[in-house]
Amino acid sequence: MVARRVRTVEISGIRKMFDAAAPDSVNLGLGEPDFEPPSEVVEALCAAVRDGMNHYGPSAGLAELRDRVAERYRDRDRRTSRENVIITGSGTEALLVTALALYDAGDEVLVPNPGFVLYSPHARLMGATPVPYSLDAQRRYVPDLDELERLVTRRTRAIVVNSPSNPTGGVFPPAVVDALVAFAERHDLTIVSDEVYEEIVYDGEFVSFWGKSDRVVVVNSFSKTLAMTGWRIGFLVAPRALALDLNKMHYHVMACPPTPAQVAVLFGLASSRPAIRRMVREFRARRDLVVRLLREVPGIDVVPPAGAFYAFPRFSWPSTSAEAATALLKRGVILTPGDAFGSLGASHLRLSFAASRDNIRRGLEIVRAYGEEVGAMSASGENGGRKGTPKVPLGSPPSSR
Ligand SMILES: Cc1ncc(COP(=O)(O)O)c(C=O)c1O
To answer: Whose CA is nearest to atom 16 of ligand 1?
Structure first.
């Protein structure tokens, strides 16, 4: 018999979606860049492996890489040093380590709804209660401070924030960051700021929470910026005392981050700026294409994403988001059901534009044809004459959420 905690979480609906897809489907479901890491970083990885960097390293990561990351964070807080930085085996591990170090059973944790799929499960695994706060299109996906004041209790331990956001593409303006910091200070909360998409911003400007308060833990990753999701390397930036505790949890989870990947990233951080700029430029062009094509689909509304590489269109079709995603999957395009990200993701789909422009056009052509079909069925009152509830051709939904 397994521990009770195992039953408190599910495998992400996103993964289930992939399992159900035909091999030749257009994949607009991927949460990773469709680029390769910069070639000099790939070369550095190969050289590291060849030159014998194949052994355990320090638990908190190679000192030189921690120094390099600290250097990048010094313009946010000039006191930042190696002691604030822990290199992790991915942003995912960084989030788990943060939960292990911060949340006790009985605590409450404010999490975005819709929000990235790990925040609530990690809280639940610790015996804590995730308390969702709303992000909606009307507010351009920034939190409503009045709602946060209503949700906070004496048990609230932390608030998780994510700007630029997966899945909404929302980016917090500077005044929102300041208001969230003041809120956290007022209620003695830790801010867990997931900044893995910090480099991928199209409108406005990314503002880090680091340096805004002493109660911030930044979760970050090289996965998205250096297009190395499979290498599993990320990092945490935290106040020194907390960093020691985070490192203790990190040691127990994975002993140390992968040595060859650290050497390659260390080498690549300085030289990869042009590659990152090129990638973001391409993402911006695709963002514009996706928004234009989505606006041609009957029954769809979309706020242009200001960052990350996801659009989060809302649909007015009479189906759940899992049903709509399944129907589209059968027609050959993979999209992620919006409610995989929380209850407010109902009637939404997440579309990743980490796909070629050709695939985006092909995929959105399928979505447009589907939107027209559903619209025509609604107009003719098909589905046994039940007006407004046309029969959407469905299989079993891929997501259990
Ligand atoms: C918001 C957010 N945070 C964290 C991660 C984790 O990234 P990784 O584990 O690849 O570093 C992801 C990945 O999709 C993400 O979208």
So the answer is: 166
For a ligand 1 pocket test, name from 160, 166, 236, 253 the mutation site with the most ligand atoms within 8 angstroms of its C-beta: 166
Beta pairing partners, 311: 351
Instruction: State the angle between helix axes of 91-102 and 240-254 in degrees (0 to 180), rounded to the nearest 10.
Output: 110
19/82 same-domain check: no
Of 188, 141, 149, 148, nearest in space to 168 by CA: 141
Say what the pTM is: 0.93
Tell whether 148 and 256 lie within a shared domain.
yes
Which of 12, 221, 235, 254 to mutate for ligand 1's pocket (most ligand atoms within 8 Å of CB)? Answer: 221
* Shared-domain flag, residues 114 and 154: yes
Q: Report whether 168 contacts 344 (CB < 8 A).
A: no
Domain with residue 248: its CATH number is 3.40.640.10
Distance 31 CA to ligand 1 centre (A): 8
Which range of 28-37, 82-91, 373-382 scores highest in mean pLDDT? It is 82-91
- Domain of residue 372 covers 4-35+275-380
Q: Is residue 395 part of a domain?
A: no
Report yes or no on 362 lying in a domain. yes
Residues 56-96 pLDDT 10s = 999 999 999 999 999 999 999 999 999 999 999 999 999 99
In this structure, what token pair is assigned to residue 46? 């190969």
Helix (H, G, I), strand (E, B) or coil at 193: strand
**pLDDT score at 324:** 96
Q: For residues 338 and 16, which has the higher predicted lDDT (pLDDT)?
A: 338
